[in-house]
Amino acid sequence: MNKQALDHLNPSQLQAVEHIDGPMLILAGAGSGKTKTLTTRLAYLIDEVGIPSNTTLTLTFTNKAASEMRERALKLIENNTNHPPLLCTFHKFGLLFLKFHIHYLGREPNFILIDSDDKKKILKTLDTNLPIGYIESQISRMKNSLTSPEDALIAAQDRHQKFIAETYKKYVHYLETKNMVDFDDLLSLSYKILDDNPDLAKETSNRYRYIMVDEYQDTNYLQYCLLQKLCSAHQNLCVVGDDDQSIYGWRGADIANILEFKDNFENVKIIKLEQNYRSSTQILSIANSLIAHNASRLGKELQSIKGNGKEITLFHSADETEESNKISKEIKKLLDLGTNPDEIAILFRLNALSRSIEEGLNRAKIPYKLIGAMRFYERAEIKDILAYLRFIINPNDDFSLSRIINKPKRGIGKITQEKIFQIAQDHNASVYQAFKSDYLEKTINEKTLQTLIDFFSTIQDLREYLSISVLKFIDEFISQINLSGEIENSNESIDRVSNIEEFYGMFRDYIIQSPMNSLQDFLNDLSLSSDADTQGEGYISCMSVHSAKGLEFKYVFIVGFEEGFFPLIREEGDIEEERRLGYVAFTRAKDELYISFVKSRFYKGKRTELEKSRFLQEAGLMGKKQEISNETGFQKGDLISHKIFGSGRVISIDGSGKNAKLKINFGGLQRDILASFVQKEKIND
Q: Between 175 and 80, where is the model more confident?
């Protein structure tokens, strides 16, 4: 390999690269060069140590990451034989494994891999009354927790759980009889084969003697178990990750995998990459301060290589309209100074917040692109509401009716819908006209007819409310057309319900601000605002914090720093994961960071007074991070040293004076220590 590649590494990176045998955890902070470290280590093993390239296995999570790492690694490797190293996603590895070994399950290697749409279509044939998205997510959850249909049936504690388990069993049987596998099967079936065949597990482990895993903090239980099998003949597992960037707990990622890595493998070498090449000292200072409040972490302190930059800018606004205007004005200044729009990003915790931001950017004629999500008015749930409103104005609008006739589900399936619309067309009438003229009465069944009677009756009721008061109409519409009820059990329920509530709140505020305006005026204004001119070569990026992970921008604006929005407060919310999301948001910024919070926002369909996010104080942005507790001289988040246990961070303080009991996190191990036995450490920027 090119020797200069090693010269460009810092001491911690070089130490990680030159480690050969045994398990190693590379705790890589944001912007610390983890990809460079991982690809250089792969090249080092092959070119310097002489490890055959086809005995290495490097696993990632996305095809994009795998492609980038493969390209960078191959540029470094000079001893590139006809057997290049296997560098792919977990699921690609599973696919390759099953093609060679699915016969262990009595199945043919010509299996068909189905996608998410195929999966939903199959589930629809299994006669389930529950939302397909919910059933799909439950089956995925059980497969990734290695729960078989039989185990699910045994564990079922009520009728609801039993029904899901039975549907799961039918679904698995369907796939087996058709020789199909779904995305989750790629790993769950691979694990089952290895678990049932120890000799094959040992043979596979001996084939891949050196295994590396990127983004280890995002692994779930199944991926952990699979790695255990792949390492059954050796312990040469190198994992790279950041416990402070574990933000996918909601989709199964288990932070315990990285926190407990040193306990799950023997004689683990831990290397911390703490030198940050991305952000200024000011940005890293607040990121370090915020994440220090988490108890479940291994502990590290990012240090800026760039040095001092601009202080963090806080925007405090009366409401979301003022907020979007301030941000748009600041972005306009940056663009006027020649800033490339691609270097600017607006981040939010909840997709529903994009609505006011989009409108502010449209007003300012600033071109933008929404990453990882549709524009607010293009989202399915918003289009459903708009279709209802258009149909209420004009009951002869069959285009809008076709979208809502079975939303929420009312038992009018696709075939029945086609029949209804065809009858209307044959009579040269709209469906509503056909209904009023009794053309449908003799051609559709009694149950469907009654459903249509109820539906059109509801529409007529709403039209009458609309003629009296638009505000009263909004309340009745929300009550009678329960669009959010059907999606409450889906994976994306929080965002989708929030989008619906955001729309209702914005609709209500529009009428309050302009009482003389009608529903038609509202819809017309929406059409104008959502078709803003966005032509231009560059676009600023708007996205959720989840979508921003792995990206970086010179200028970052974070909106919605209020309690209930960031952190997002749920009944069983994980405040530590929310804090990690804040840490990820902060560390996307390279040069300048702007954080915005408001006094009030639309929330659940009404304007709500809000408290500023606790994260502002925890990050040291609102005066002292914490008050000193009872004259101990220590505060939560302090970095301390102990003569035996070394460096640690104060998690909590109980009592006062020298006898105060400090709960301290020593690299993942928590201990209660008296205040008189520790000293504060000085932090050098």
A: 175
